[in-house]
Design goal:
Shape: globular
CATH class: Alpha Beta
Bound molecules: magnesium ion
Largest sheet: 5 strands, parallel
Distance between the termini: 44 Å
Length: 171
């Protein structure tokens, strides 16, 4: 990453920081996973269909609870070019739209490495007390890096779904 992707992160009153993923935590991505099952994968259609994601009640409840006494920041692997769509979705569901940290459009690293770098940078100025993500690979890396991360389990991650489908196909 060439430049800091989050130059304007507010640092208002030093409340502890809770970090929330969106896809699979707040947003139900299941209706668009078929774009990733296709060969070749249809990533742009996968992202643009996010407009129609249902809200996941478990994630929304956790977010509202966190907002009571935390600053909340979204950290997601969706590329920056989807920012307007993502903010519109958050607004429609009555959720805060900021701060929203997204992957740079030219950053093709797996989400786990991008997220680890962002957390390390955030930690220079903020006290990160919780991270919620639905991707087991992300959770594993962040946990190994010492972050208080929790795996969101109310929607199985797409990799888990895929494995389950493959397993089912074999039996
Ligand atoms: Mg996710």
């Amino acid at each position: 990453m060439t430049a800091a992707p989050f130059p304007t992160l507010p640092c208002p009153d030093g409340r502890p920081l809770a970090v929330f993923d969106i896809d699979g935590v707040l947003a139900d991505v299941r209706h668009r996973l078929h774009h990733l099952e296709a060969r070749p994968q249809r990533w742009e259609r996968f992202f643009s269909a996010a407009d129609r994601d249902p809200l996941l009640p478990d994630g929304a409840e956790r977010l509202r609870a966190a907002l009571v006494d935390h600053d909340v920041i979204y950290l997601m692997g969706r590329p920056e070019r989807n920012r307007r769509l993502t903010e519109g979705w958050l607004r429609r569901h009555g959720l805060p739209t900021q701060p929203l940290l997204m992957r740079e459009d030219d950053d093709y690293r797996p989400a786990r490495w991008m997220k680890r770098e962002v957390l390390r940078t955030l930690a220079a100025t903020r006290d990160i007390v919780s991270v919620l993500d639905d991707d087991p690979a992300v959770v594993q890396v962040l946990e190994a890096d010492g972050w208080p991360v929790e795996l969101a389990t109310w929607l199985p991650h797409s990799s888990t779904l895929r494995r389950a489908q493959e397993d089912t196909g074999r039996t």
